[in-house]
Amino acid sequence: MNTDFNHGPISRRSFLSTGTLGLGGLCLSDVMRLRAAAGQPSVAPDTSVIFIWLAGGPPHMETYDMKPDAPSDYRGQFNPIRTNVPGIDVCELLPMHAKCADKYTLIRSIAHTFSDHGGGSKRFMTGRLPSSTNHSPALV
User: Fold this and answer.
1) Among 33, 45, 47, 51, which one is most buried in terms of CB atoms within 10 A?
2) Contacts of residue 137, Cβ cutoff 8 Å, sequence gap at least 6
3) How many domains does the chain have?
4) Per-residue pLDDT in tens (0 to 9) along the chain, 140 residues
5) H or E stretch including 100?
6) How many Å apart are CA 27 and CA 10, to the nearest integer?
7) Is residue 12 part of a domain?
8) Nearest-angstrom CA–CA distance, 128 and 33
9) What is the CA radius of gyration of the chain?
């Protein structure tokens, strides 16, 4: 087992970054105390996020993007119901979602420059570029 912790002289960059973090940590309690004394909240109020990603789930035309006026070949079999937000309808199978539509946001359109949905989905979900945009070896 290697117990030698001395891996050479410490670099100036490492010393400064470690020292800055330490100094910031020492000052943080004072900043928090002053904010509390001033009556300012130190953190944002609690919020909740429920992220519903329907990849492989029910079709959008039978849930949140109903097309009641489209030809029967292009619309779902269910009927839309009104929500508590004017102009937004959802599927009749989602009555609880209809009651709280003012509490959520629907994203019905996302654009990306990838040649497949997998690359765009990975970019959207992680914020990182995929390592390869070709996820279909059968098409190679």
Assistant:
1) 33
2) none
3) 1
4) 444 444 556 777 776 666 666 666 666 777 777 777 777 665 777 777 777 777 777 888 888 888 888 888 888 889 999 999 998 999 999 999 999 999 988 887 778 888 888 888 888 888 888 776 455 555 54
5) none
6) 24
7) no
8) 37
9) 26
